[in-house]
Structure formats: C-alpha cells, structure tokens
Write a structure and sequence with these properties.
Elements: E1 27-31, E2 37-41, H1 49-63, H2 72-89, H3 104-113, H4 118-131, H5 139-146, H6 161-193, H7 202-217, E3 222-224, E4 230-232, H8 234-240, H9 256-270, H10 274-278, E5 284-285, E6 296-303, E7 311-318, H11 327-345, E8 355-357, E9 371-373, E10 376-378, H12 382-392, H13 400-412, H14 420-428, H15 432-456, E11 461-462, E12 471-472, E13 477-478, E14 483-484, E15 488-489, E16 506-508, H16 513-529, H17 532-538, H18 540-553, H19 555-563, H20 567-577
Parallel strand pairs: 11-16
Antiparallel strand pairs: 1-2, 3-4, 5-6, 6-7, 8-10, 9-10, 12-13, 13-16, 14-15
Helix pairs in contact: 2-4, 3-5, 6-7, 6-9, 6-11, 7-8, 9-13, 16-18, 16-19, 16-20
C-alpha cells in the first residue's frame, strides 16, 4: 500500500523541530504552517536509487521550518512535477545515477520534450530551480538551465455577463437550498430541546432526538454491523425518511459541494482567489455591532505570494439587508453554526469559515492538506473548486480564476489583494470587456478635453484696424452683434462680455490691447483673494483665453499694452468685475 496519501504523526520532543527526513533517507514528512502533516515517499518516484535520496534531501530541506515551503500546495506541486522528469530520465540511453551525473544534453532533451504550453513552461522552470539547489549540479547543466524559456501567454478572460450570472445563480441555488434545510432542522431541534414536541408526535420526536445526537456527536444514532461498518439505527432512519446523507447528517451540516458553492459566492462577491477563500477565517462582528444594529463583520484574508511576504487584508462588511456586502457572511455563519458548535464542544482550535461534513472522505485526494476534526473538514482546497467547475462551470471548465477576474475587473473595478499597478496592467488592460467599456469613456473624455480646450482658446479675430459696421463692447469690437454663435441668431447677443474672447464674431485691434491686458492682470489678482472653487468656476476660462491672447501678441506688445492702460480702461474693467456690466 502506498504511503504517500496517509497522515503522518510527526514525532516531536520538547521544543525540538519535527523530523523531516526519516532514517531511510526516502520519506519526507512536511508539516505546514497550519499544523497539518503530509508524507512523501521518494521510493515511489522512477529515479535511480542514489538520485531518489538526493532529491529527498533537497525536498526535505525545503519542507523544514524556514525552508520556504509553508503549505502542502507547494510541496505537492513539486512532487507532481518530479514524476514526469523521472519518467523521462528512465527512457534515456544512459539513465543518470545521481544529480552530478546529469548532462547538458540530457537537460536540453528534457526541455525539448515538454509541450509548448503553460504546463510545459512550469515543468521546465520549476524542476530547474529545484535541481539547482544541489551544489553538485554540473556547471554545464546550470548554463543550459539558464537559457531563457519563452513564457507561454495564457488567454484567460472574464466571464461574459450571462456566464457570470449563471455561475452565481447555480452557486446560490446549491447553497440556498442547504441554508433553508439547515434552518428548518435547527428550528425543529430547538423545539425538541425546549419540550415543544410531544411524545405523541412520534415521527418528529424521533427526528428531534436524532438531531440532538447529530448536533452533539456529528452523527445520528448508529450501531456497528457485523462487517464493522456503522449504520443509522433503524427507528431513526425510518422516521427521517432514509439512511442516506440527505436524510441524516445533511439536516444540520453542509456537504463539501455546498461549502464549495458558498466559496464560489464569496469569490464572486469579493474578488478573492481559491486559496484565500478556502482558508478564510471566521469573520467577527465588530464591537459596535450591538443588538438591534446592523452587524458589521471584520473579514480577514491572506493571499500567499511566491517569493514575497504574504498579503494580509481586512475588510469591514455590513449586513444591512438583502444584497448588502455582509449578508452572505450572516448566511454562511448561520449555515455552519451547528458544525461550529460541535467543534467548540470538542475543543477544536482550527478556525475556518467554510466547514463541511463528509462521511466517506475521498482517499485519492490529498485530504491531509486540510484541517480535520472527526467527520468535519475545515476549509477547502483547489481540487474542490476544480471539481465544482467540472460540474457547474461553462463547458466543464474552472470557475475560480475567471470568477475572481470578473468580480474585480468588471464589477468591483478595484484591486483585489493586488497593487493598483498589477490590477491595471495584468487584469484590466488585457481584458476585452474592460477595453470595450473604456471606449465611450475615452471618447467622452476626449470630447470634454476638446471642449475645454475650445473654451480656453482665444477665438476672437485679431485685426489691425476696426472693420466697417463693427460695434464696440466693454472689451472689444463685434462684427455681427445680431447673430451670435453663443446665444443664437436674430435676437442680438445676450452673452457675458467675458465670453467675447471666445466668440469668432469678436474683433480685437491694437486699441483694445491695453484694456484686455489690464483685465488679464485683474483676473490674476482675483485668484489670490477668492476661494479656488469660486475662481475656477467664474474666472478661470476668461483668464485662460486672455493668457492665450498674451502668448499670441508676444511679451513686447503685452508690456506696451500694460504701459498704455488708461483711467477709462481701469474704470471699465472695474465695472466689469463688479457686475455693473451684464455678465
């Protein structure tokens, strides 16, 4: 029987660190930072005996405290990558006995044998990085490993709106039915414990008694059969409608699938990845969430980052009604309350939001990466979400990565445990939906910028002398007073005199320069005494147009204009700014 999948009880003495590599030099025991244990037997890998021991020693060093591998996801990932490398070496003409016997030609052959996919890229780079931990690796092999491996671009886009809604709908349906089932049975249990169900109501009384046992022990009343298997006591299974899971333990507890559906809902609502959701701790209501107030939960999450410090984040989420940010947490706590009560009664120290019950664990899956207590699993792993995607995802594909991207890019439109730069460059810019949504925004921004530019550009015509029929205004001349492009033709211009510099009907000749130069100076002085919002709203645009005029006339003409300002010009500008003219 394979030793790979079993839990390992790590021997510890006092405060000594656990033994990572056993006496055989082939079995590595990895204790994760969560306290869960996993065993890897290198005798199972298809390498030469000496290389098995060398690889086991490297593996043990990484699994040791401080070695860098804090989770079973990392160690299992490398374990799975080593097997195809061993199978490849077993097919070469001269299988290397140990790591020092590897050659550059063998490595390049391995590299060429890998598919031009993301998986192939990971197999090459990860195995190379692992082997380079051994100082005995020959230098020519290191040089071959140093050659650049082209990264394969993985096209992964957000879900289309209909797909995302279907993901949410199916997850809500699975979890909601479980919540209602648990809620109904909790009410029945509370009625039984309160003595509100009479003995005469035989069926409900037996169900209540079975639920009481289920809440205290994790199982309905059972007996051991001759073959050693445990079966529900017949009178209780008959009262409950059967002895299957849906009639027995699922009355109070979530199944693994239902807990996974809840995890998908958290990813869709908050843009979290699979590992973060699977390891979510129980959110706590803040101290000011007193009775009669809306509960405000503090949700703490952790995102692991390769080669960097882990990212910790806290979000405060209030439940103030349906579809509010905290409502899903309230429902999750209600659905897992019976399991949480049981775990507390047995002094379980594990803390996970997603708790599920399973009577028959799947031995083929590395379940020891999970926290366990009796029939309960605490948290979820990536394979759980992969299984869910196979069943409910579009075309049987994965759901969590695309769900997270859809939530953060299309709906929340803010980073989810990433920096703003990473969010923009990696998630937003390559996303077709984001690109499509940006088109009208960019167009509107361009139009606004163009309009703003038009408002701040001096539009009046510069002339040397007054034109025939030109009408003098407070600031300049006007060639067509009756047909204003600003207020419309045929009624006479009713626009502010400050808008004259934005009108193509306006005419400015040298006699107007002193008054306009003085107006420009006066508007600049107003900026120093008026609140910025007021000046920006009322005076910034005419000031910008006059600044454009100043640029066009040049410094020499502008200084001459300022030197030629008359008392009449000063009085006209003062009246203009004090509202004596119709602005």
């Amino acid at each position: 029987m394979s030793r790979r999948g079993r839990k390992a009880a790590l021997p510890e003495v006092g405060h000594q660190r656990p033994v990572v590599l056993d006496a055989s030099g082939l079995v590595v025991r990895h204790r994760s930072k969560m306290g869960t244990n996993k065993e890897f037997d290198f005798a199972e890998l298809p390498f030469a005996p000496a290389m098995r021991r060398s690889l086991a020693a490297l593996f043990a060093a990484k699994c040791a405290p401080g070695g860098g591998w804090n989770t079973h996801d990392t160690s299992v990932h490398m374990w799975r990558l080593l097997r195809p490398f061993g199978e490849f070496l077993g097919e070469v003409d001269q299988q290397p006995d140990d790591i020092p016997d590897l050659t550059a030609a063998t490595w390049m052959a391995w590299r060429l044998s890998r598919p031009l996919t993301h998986t192939g890229y990971v197999q090459i780079t990860a195995v190379a990085g692992f082997l380079q931990l051994d100082p005995r690796l020959p230098q020519p092999v290191r040089a071959a490993m140093a050659k650049r491996v082209p990264r394969v671009k993985v096209e992964e886009h957000a879900f289309a709106p209909a797909e995302f809604e279907e993901i949410r709908r199916s997850a809500r349906q699975v979890f909601r039915s479980a919540l209602l089932r648990i809620r109904e049975n909790v009410q029945l249990l509370e009625s039984w414990r309160a003595g509100a169900i009479p003995h005469q109501d035989r069926q409900n009384w037996l169900i209540g008694e079975a639920l009481d046992c289920l809440a205290r022990t994790g199982h309905v009343p059972r007996y051991e059969r001759n073959d050693g298997r445990m079966r529900p006591v017949f009178r209780y299974s008959r009262a409950m409608g059967g002895d299957g899971a849906k009639y027995t333990w699922r009355r109070l507890y979530l199944s693994r699938l239902e807990a996974t559906a809840l995890g998908v809902l958290f990813a869709a609502a908050h843009g979290l990845n699979a590992t973060t959701v699977g390891e979510l701790r129980t959110p706590r209501a803040t101290p000011d969430s007193g009775e009669g107030r809306f509960p405000v939960y503090r949700m703490e999450s952790e995102k692991r980052r390769k080669g960097e410090a882990d990212h910790f984040e806290t979000r405060n989420l209030a439940d103030f009604g349906a579809d509010s940010p905290g409502r899903l947490i309230t429902e999750a706590l209600e659905a897992t309350a019976p399991a949480r009560t049981y775990l507390k009664s047995v002094a379980c120290t594990g803390d996970r939001l997603l708790i599920w019950h399973e009577a028959r664990p799947r031995h083929w899956q590395p379940n020891d990466a999970l926290l366990r207590e009796g029939p309960f699993g605490l948290g979820l792993t990536k394979p759980d979400f992969d299984d869910y995607g196979t069943r409910f995802g579009p075309n049987g594909g994965g759901v969590m990565r695309r769900t997270r991207k859809t939530a953060n890019v299309v709906h929340r439109r803010e980073p989810g445990q990433n920096s703003q730069d990473t969010h923009d460059s990696i998630y937003v810019i390559p996303e077709p939906q984001a690109q499509q949504a940006a088109i009208p925004v960019i167009a509107e921004g361009a139009e606004d910028a163009l309009e703003a530019a038009r408002r701040t550009v001096f539009a009046a015509q510069l002339t040397d002398t007054p034109e025939d029929g030109e009408v003098e205004t407070a600031t300049n001349g006007c060639a067509d007073y009756e047909n204003s492009p600003i207020t419309g033709p045929g009624t006479g211009c009713e626009a502010s005199f400050l808008l004259c510099t934005a009108c193509p009907n306006a005419r400015v000749h040298p006699a107007h320069h002193p008054r306009l130069a003085h107006l420009h100076r006066a508007l600049g002085e107003l900026r120093d005494v008026l609140p910025s919002p007021v000046w920006d709203a009322d005076w910034s645009e005419p000031y910008a147009r006059l600044s454009d005029l100043k640029r066009r006339l040049g410094p020499a003409l502008w200084r001459r204009a300022l030197a030629s300002v008359t008392a009449e010009d000063r009085e006209a500008v003062g009246d203009l700014l004090n509202g004596l003219y119709d602005l």
